[in-house]
Design goal:
- This protein is of the alpha+beta class.
- The protein has six helices and nine strands; from the N terminus they run H-E-E-H-E-H-E-H-E-H-E-E-E-E-H.
- The protein has a single domain, classed as Glutaredoxin (3-Layer(aba) Sandwich).
- The longest helix is centred in the middle third of the chain and has 19 residues.
- The chain is globular, with a radius of gyration of 21 Å.
């Protein structure tokens, strides 16, 4: 038998253990225009480390677009549109980075198959997506073909929503779009940068 004092002590400890921490660890991030961009590191399609601290600089804009997955129709259209617009974007000092839950290897295959000319980053656990407030859902398996026509079955751990951000030369979010139309994304970004450069 426990004494009343012992029961009270055990009850107090249990209450503390079950009490909310108040840290809000599961609360989604609400990143808006004007906010400082999150810092992060991910591996690119060559397996090299891509760091925001090395790429968010005063002399360039950085487009970061999150997309559901490589080799899917909408994502392919979006990637090809950015690839076609890269010459104009580069002239204005713009870098483009695509981020999804696909692996480095899948990114490598996708980039080669679609002849893409910009960087893809592997966010396999959706960690960086969450830093930007982008919704993350369970992954999926995609059946496709590589650049040589070989049939592939590719699996990703997580699927991110299709959101696009532009990080300004001051390291802050300059543009945010949560309702992206894949084929028009590059055009909208090009127009936004052109207007911003005129100011």
């Amino acid at each position: 038998m426990f004494s009343p004092a012992r029961v009270f002590a055990l009850g107090s400890l249990l209450a503390l253990a079950l009490a909310p921490t108040g840290r809000g660890d599961d609360k989604p991030v609400d990143l808006n225009v004007g906010d400082k961009a999150p810092t992060f590191q991910l591996h690119d399609d060559n397996g090299k480390t891509w760091s925001s601290s090395d790429n968010f600089k005063k002399d360039k804009w950085v487009v970061i677009y999150f997309y559901p997955g490589d080799f899917t129709p909408g994502c392919t259209a979006q990637a090809k549109a950015f690839s076609a617009a890269m010459e104009k974007l580069k002239e204005k000092g713009v870098d483009v980075v695509g981020i999804s839950g696909d692996s480095v290897k899948t990114h490598e295959l996708f980039k080669k198959a679609q002849k893409l000319n910009f960087t893809l980053l592997a966010d396999e656990e959706g960690t960086v997506a969450k830093q930007f407030g982008v919704p993350v859902t369970p992954g999926a398996t995609v059946k496709t073909k590589d650049a040589e026509g070989n049939i592939l079955e590719l699996k990703r751990n997580v699927t991110t929503a299709r959101w696009t951000f532009v990080i300004g030369k001051d390291g802050k979010v300059a543009y945010k779009n949560k309702a992206v139309t894949p084929a028009d994304d590059a055009k909208k970004i090009t127009e936004f940068i052109a207007k911003a450069e005129e100011k």
